[in-house]
Amino acid sequence: MDVLHAITDGTGAYEVIRTFLYYYVTERYGAELTKDGVRLLEPFMKRNGFRNRGGWWIRIEV
Questions:
Q1: Phi-psi region at 30: left, alpha or beta (left = phi > 0; alpha = psi -120 to 50)
Q2: How many whole angstroms separate alpha carbon 7 and alpha carbon 52?
Q3: 35-58 pLDDT, tens per residue?
Q4: What is the rounded CA–CA span in Å between residue 1 and residue 17?
Q5: How far, in Å, CA of 8 to CA of 12, rounded?
Q6: How far apart are alpha carbons 37 and 14 in whole angstroms?
Q7: Distance separating the N- and C-terminal Cα atoms of the chain
Q8: Are 15 and 37 in contact (CB under 8 A)?
């Protein structure tokens, strides 16, 4: 993964890498990690009308 320093500072890059590693380690190794400081996909997707169906995010029409 490459992070262009012109569009983010060290803090922003740290958040991206921390979130990337959280998802990688939990998916690859099934590890139980703390979610502190991680930008989670699920709350964002649910707020925007999507639901996880077997690993696929499906938009739910109301």
A1: left
A2: 31
A3: 887 888 888 888 889 988 888 888
A4: 9
A5: 5
A6: 10
A7: 37
A8: yes
